[in-house]
Design goal:
The protein is mainly α and 107 residues long. It has 2 domains: 64 residues, 434 Repressor (Amino-terminal Domain), CATH 1.10.260; 32 residues. Helices cover 64% and strands 0% of the residues. The longest helix is centred in the C-terminal third of the chain and has 16 residues. The chain is elongated. The termini are far apart.
């Protein structure tokens, strides 16, 4: 799946979560319904300005539209992701990560 298709799918999900029909969102973001539909289908890529307008129209951060992967909930998978993140890190970086995690869990 292309990045444009992922963006469009995510945009549609956020729009529906806000209970907005495509026409109302297009009006709020000052764009055309057909253009917005093409973006949601991954046929077109939005401009930076339109991404900002869409985010403002739904009162979300623009980064919301780029959260393509669902959050992981399986503990084993999360541990693997942590291991991959820490792999090949030097002693200084590992120490900082340890201190950050320790502070997080002790607060």
């Amino acid at each position: 799946m292309t990045a444009a298709a992922k963006f469009g799918r995510r945009l549609r999900t956020v729009r529906k979560a806000h209970k907005l029909n495509i026409g109302l969102l297009a009006e709020r973001a000052n764009t055309g319904v057909k253009h917005l539909g093409r973006i949601e289908r991954g046929e077109k890529q939005p401009s930076f300005e339109l991404i900002i307008a869409l985010a403002q129209a739904m009162s979300v951060s623009p980064s919301t539209f780029f959260e393509f992967d669902p959050p992981q909930t399986d503990p084993k998978a999360l541990r693997r992701q942590l291991d991959q993140l820490l792999e090949n890190r030097g002693a200084g970086e590992l120490l900082r990560a340890y201190r950050a995690l320790k502070a997080f869990f002790e607060s």
